[in-house]
């Protein structure tokens, strides 16, 4: 969820400031379009090539395509997100800035060969450069105020998410954002001291396993459950697709149910 919020804010900011050809740093105010090495301060945009992609640097993979703008030269040539760029115009690239410098040394109308690695396949794309778009003028105070409100909103969402996970009210989660997150699909009664189920999402893994409101979960696999924190820890130790048994107290009856963990929605 944190990742989704951050991505949404980045997209909004990109539209507000019409950022550079390749963005490498978080937004901290209006950013100028990077100039080719040795170029004068004022860029003659009619002489600067443009692809329409954003690159980032990965310590393991190298220079990776993070985004491809719709209807851009890069999109028309078939460049895809997560492609690993290995060379531009016959020159090996090791940094995103290096790719910027090569592209902007070429003029609109030139065809640039970009070599990429897509999975286990090496591909060479021919990209017809167009003119570098003009930047939007510096943001007015209203835009700055909007960004401040968006940042405050993100901070509040993050705080609420952390608090919800801590209380164990929403079941699911994982250790890191890159780890697939297990999901059952129910909430707990916040007023109860034990792990009493309050609601069950329709068609969720918990629903398919037969879990009901007012059930008290006493065990997940080999993990004994005494309270919401125990249940949250047990779920976080699981992975999507893992199957285990839930021990449930249903009124005066003890029942068991087989459940297959789903993947937590983003």
Model description:
The structure is a single chain. The protein has 266 residues and is of the alpha+beta class. It folds into two domains: 33-131, Roll (Pdz3 Domain); 170-263, Pdz3 Domain (Roll), CATH 2.30.42. The protein has helices spanning 2-17, 73-77, 96-104, 141-167, 205-208, 228-236, and strands at 49-50, 53-58, 62-68, 84-88, 91-92, 111-118, 121-128, 130-131, 170-173, 182-188, 197-200, 216-220, 223-224, 243-250, 253-260, 262-263. Strands 2, 3, 4, 5, 6 and 7 form a six-stranded antiparallel β-sheet that branches. Strands 9, 10, 11 and 16 form a four-stranded antiparallel β-sheet that branches. It is elongated.
